[in-house]
Amino acid sequence: MVNNYVPPEHVKPRLISKGLVLEGGGLRGYYTAGLLDGFMEQGIDFPYIIGVSAGVGMGCSYVSRQRERNLDILVNYREDPRYLSFRSYFRTGNLFGLDFIYGDIPHQYVPFDFKTFGASPSRFITVCTDCNTGEAVYYEKDEDILTVMKASAAIPYISKMVEYKGTKLLDGAIADAIPLARAIEDGYRDTVVVLTQPKGYRKKDELHPPAGLFYRRYPRLADVLNKRVAAYNAALDLVEAEEAAGRALVIRPSSDLGVTRMEKSVKKLRDLYELGLHDSKKTGAKL
After folding, report:
1. Catalytic residue list contains 176
2. Mean of the pLDDT values across residues 82-89?
3. I need a labelling partner for 68 at 20 to 30 A (CA). Which of 42, 92, 109, 275 fits?
4. Active site located where (predicted)?
5. Among residues 37, 113, 130, 171, which one is catalytic?
6. Residue 280 among the catalytic residues
7. Which pLDDT value is given to residue 140?
8. Residue 172's closest CA among 193, 190, 189, 149?
9. Where are the domains of the chain?
10. Structure pTM?
């Protein structure tokens, strides 16, 4: 198991009285992993953390105090076909090997510290999308964290739905890609928002199967998927408005390394992690 990180004695713990909002972005989430490991080094904690998709996976290791756990997974398992491959898709129905990533890895290969995670005083919320209603569902950390984490990362079209407590779930980013509004609703007017795209990014229409056909048994999900681009850009508008008002500290990659959601290059992902680590030093001084 990756041991719990304890900052050096000269580093004073700092509880930042803001909500932390973590965007997803597939493997671009390794920026978030580096950033949060840097926060750990600086003794920075938050009372409230809400994440989507990859943001949940990176955020969990932050709450469990397992610095470099996500880096360990990257170095040792990104090129494993069980992690991401067409072989995984044809065998399991998931392009990303969700059962491997959220089952075998945390239980066997790079163990997750459930005890420290559960004992943390920080509130931790995972965002998923209910396939029947098309609405976001928000799960607290006392739920089956690996199952809801898997559901939050189940990208539409290339993943099977994840059933949890009788509800079929998919990627939280479908219904609430940047859950800043939820953090505000939960009482955190001041926030730190971590994005995985550079400043100025706006989502454009993507090529994918017609949602109405692919998810014809789930018309409300299909409707939300069809409006996803507009909803994401509206969420960015809110982020920028809160940033301009001085209520949100927004952290974005300081350089565009051209990393994709399904990036193949371990080196590029390692560089992205290091960029997050670098950016954490600049940001930590502002908190």
Report:
1. no
2. 95
3. 92
4. 53 (nucleophile), 171 (proton acceptor)
5. 171
6. no
7. 98
8. 149
9. 14-285
10. 0.96
